[in-house]
């Protein structure tokens, strides 16, 4: 199930994100607020994914009627945008010396964010919905590239390259965790179970390079694929490329 950012009403979404029209609970009503509704939505999505998210289920978790939520949040589209913005606050903002170290720090903080909230991978960033937390995170991440010789557009492009790699790596890590949970088998256990059959049909002489490389990978990772290794290796390759770009600008 894929949801899209920016699917709600733009004016209402931005008013919610920046809290320009915060409503207070009416007398005699439960202590509702945008923040409470958003936190309830995040808790549901963390537990069961976005497929579990609906205004009705959020209301049930808060012990109120569904219609009472609409006083604070117009609908599911706007709610998801505020949820996405809210969780961005959890990424670290520790200053790190050196652009390379900064980007590595940013990458690992974003990977940790996806691990805490896997449902973010079910949200397609169709539009950039600029809330206060997204703006603060973007500003911090760009600051580490300030003054290294890149143009403003290149700074943004480098950051997006790193974040795209993080998102792809997070998908691999999440898929591996879900598969292990649903099958009850680790990747290595699955390959161990498949090995007797593969030995009868796979001819190393016919696929010599695949046999050699696959064997080396299996020995190194105890698996046919390591999402963790893929993340670290890919990050280093990207940073090496950025280094060459920066050096070309300096020369």
Automatic annotation (TrEMBL):
Keywords: DNA-binding, Repressor, Transcription, Transcription regulation. Gene3D superfamilies: Homeodomain-like, Tetracycline Repressor, domain 2. Residues 54-73 bind DNA. Residues 31-91 form the HTH tetR-type domain. Transmembrane segments: none annotated. It comes from the Bacteria. Pfam families: TetR_C_1 (PF02909), TetR_N (PF00440). This is TetR/AcrR family transcriptional regulator. The lineage of its organism: Bacteria, Bacillati, Actinomycetota, Actinomycetes, Pseudonocardiales.
